[in-house]
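Ticket #4471: structure export looks truncated?
Reporter: QA, pipeline team
Priority: medium

Steps to reproduce: submit the single chain below to the structure queue and open the exported record.
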Amino acid sequence: MNRGTGGGGVAAGFSLLFFSFLFGPLIIMVITAFNSSSFPRITPWECFTTEWFGVLFANDRLMSGLLNSLVIAVSVVAIAVPIGLAGALALSELSSRLRAVLYTVLITPILIPGVVLGISTIVFWGALGRSVGAEYGSFFFDGMFLTLAGQVTFISAYAMLVFLARLQRFDPILTEAALDLGATPGQAFRKILLPFLGPAIGSAAFLTFLASFENYNTTVFTILSGNTFTTALASKVRHGTDPSLSALAVIIIGITLIGAIVHEAHTRRKEVLRTGIATRSRIYGNPVLKTLVHPLTVFLILAGIAGLAAWQGTRHDASVCKQQILDDKRARQHELLEEQRRKMQEQQKTTAPVTSPADAAGKANPSPFGGAFSPNGLAPGQEEPAPAAAPTDAPATANPSPFGGAFTPNGLKPSQ
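Actual output as written to the record:
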């Protein structure tokens, strides 16, 4: 019993640490997105605000980068998915030896670092453009085209892997039977193979879209003077971050959660439709339940909740709370200044000695040069100090030098 209890405690502790490590940064970013502090932090908490979402959308560089990323990602999907499908079909029709060679060639771009792909894309298309006499304003030197070309070179391999995994479960006898029954190769592809590859096409499109949208290593070189969403974010982080990035994280987390819940509703609906009649009649026999469990209804409900929360956030005014925080900071700063001034005055009182005017005249200048370099040392109304009397003959022992005083300052006077 003790051993089982101890094992359960260790498992619970490990699970807590694992989920804290996994979701801790996300929770922190969500909280900092609603703190009025200009630096992302949880403590000290100042005021609840939604102004950082407005700061995010007011950033022209980020918004233009977001638009460029969407255009590039959609274009990559339109090009990479057909290329990946063609590569997968070619591999499935070749012999085992040729399949291994072609697979190695097609999979190589994934193994090449993105920095190398970005630089090689610029060099290749730049050299090609100069060889045909293209000007620098042509598409050979356009950042959007170069980014599209650089990303397609390796993202199409991702799509190919998705299609290969799906084709491993396809029975080629189906297409052979269709051809035997008089169907053309195009008809067999459209009527049999393409419907079978439908789920793989959706997965490949989604994967290639995300791979293009979040790519940085290749894009940072190929985009040239332009910017995408990832490069604009990296530039903003280098020049100083603020909670607007946390607001961006909140938006991404919200979209991800909505998509995950809708996908789960779609999956359960398909599972229910495949179950027995009793379950089907219990769920879909009631019109209200049938409507509520539909994925479109779930999406509309979640989108409505998100829109209502955003609308309520725009109506929230944190100016009064922020002014109160500012007044408190000023008051605290004034108190610290007054306390520092009071301490300095007390220190001056305790360290200043009380002396008479005569002592003050004698001790006013402790300099070993007799005040010769004091500001008023040569004032007109002051008398020059009398020169010190020449010393009388000093005893011979006054100069212990073995050279008999030959190197003393007055050793060579004429009177001597």
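Status: closed, not a bug. The export was complete when the record was re-opened. Leaving a note from the reviewer for reference: The radius of gyration is 41 Å.
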